[in-house]
Specification:
Keywords: Metal-binding, Pyrimidine biosynthesis, Transferase, Zinc. One of its GO terms (cellular component) is aspartate carbamoyltransferase complex. GO terms for molecular function: metal ion binding; transferase activity. By secondary structure, the protein is mainly β. It has two domains: 80 residues, Aspartate carbamoyltransferase regulatory subunit, N-terminal domain (Alpha-Beta Plaits, 2-Layer Sandwich), CATH 3.30.70.140; 44 residues, SH3 type barrels, CATH 2.30.30.20. 12% of the residues lie in helices and 38% in strands. It binds zinc ion. The site of zinc ion has 8 residues, from loops.
Length: 144
Amino acid sequence: MINVSKLKKGIIIDHIEAGHGFEIYKELHLNDIDDVVVLLKNIPSKKMKQKDLIKIETDLPIDMNVLGLIDPNVTINFVKDGEMYKKIKLTLPKVVEGIMKCKNPRCITQHEEVKEIKFYLVNEDKKQYRCEYCDAYTTFMEKE
Ligand SMILES: [Zn+2]
């Protein structure tokens, strides 16, 4: 159904949880890419009932940490010359730098300009991360 061979180069982000596709689109700033980007929503899937899928025809590097934070269960397919040559499964990143913000109102990072704050994974199920400055737990996605 999804014709991979039509994509000459770039990546296909597959097995996105239905509804997360647009989140990924936003967080990866795909709107700013001048190349072809296709977002498919609510595709019937045997394994997941429904899934989202994104095709990006670009040579630009994709931030896998951001992807892993939003949806650690996605599969990334790399395409070159119309052929899929590499496939990786994502996991939650152990350390995240420069992507998340601390939500603790007393944290120093709320009052002073601190860039590239490091967060360390503490709970894989809850996707919780610990701020390196105040040790408060935080998550990347609000609703989780
Ligand atoms: Zn903090």
